[in-house]
Amino acid sequence: MQxxxxxxxxxxxxxxxxxxxxxxxxxxxxxxxxxPNGAGKSSLMRILVTLxxxxxxxxxFDSFDLKTDRKEIRNILGYLPQDFRFFxxxxxxxxxxxxxxxxxIRSKKIRHKKVDEWLEKVGLFDVRERDANKLSxxxxxxxxxxxxxxxxxxxxxxxxxxxxxxxxxxxxxRNILSExxxxxxxxxxxxxxxxxxxxxxxxxxxxxxGQLAFSGSPQELIEQA
Length: 225
Ligand code: ADP
Ligand code: ADP
Known about the structure:
Number of strands: 10
GO molecular function: ATP binding
Strand order of the largest sheet: 6-7-8-3-9-10
Domain ABC transporter: 3-225
Order of helices and strands: EEEHEEHEHHHEHEHEEH
Shape: globular
Keywords: ATP-binding, Nucleotide-binding, Transport
Bound molecules: adenosine-5'-diphosphate
Protein name: ABC transporter ATP-binding protein
Organism: Marinifilum caeruleilacunae
Radius of gyration: 18 Å
């Protein structure tokens, strides 16, 4: 999938300009969206996932247009927000089963097979009977990624993926995403920690106070710095 961000600006009702004429192209593989707090990363992501409209500019996902094809775009997207929490009494496997049914998988048999596959992939099979909200922080994050991916989205958007995770969980999380990025998907990761993602992304963009300060490969970023 080719995502074409064209001259995007966002001005909030209070006059704050969070995005200023940002243009970017994002292809398959892992894309890193870098920038300090307040740079505009979340604003850009909220626009991409159709939760917020831009003040100016447009985005295309292949031939789908953000202005006219919201429904189609939502169908191909998976979004894992930063402050993802489980307000649920469901067991870990039930939570994924529910996510799979929301993603439109009607057959119980197929759902259960998918749930088991994903529990294995993210290393939660052994705790599948545990209440989802009693899992550790890192486990919850992994359950979040499984929930996001169980519907086979073509574009995956992950906000600050490794915040609050210990080093071991960070590596684990990155490995899960690397594996997925071998397939025909686009993964967009946002972070304020460069070292977090530069090793796994094939291209990067750097936002600073709403403006695009850099876009290119991790290598080019290092050479410029
Ligand atoms: P980041 O995700 O990079 O931290 P954000 O997109 O959250 O950046 O924020 C960009 C700027 O816009 C910041 O100055 C932030 O305070 C401001 N901002 C974000 N959301 C709103 C809002 N709803 N109303 C007004 N200003 C906002
Ligand atoms: P992020 O980690 O995305 O930068 P923030 O802490 O900046 O998150 O924002 C959290 C929430 O507060 C968001 O919904 C954002 O829209 C809102 N927000 C952020 N800055 C402002 C602001 N200056 N005025 C109003 N709302 C804001």
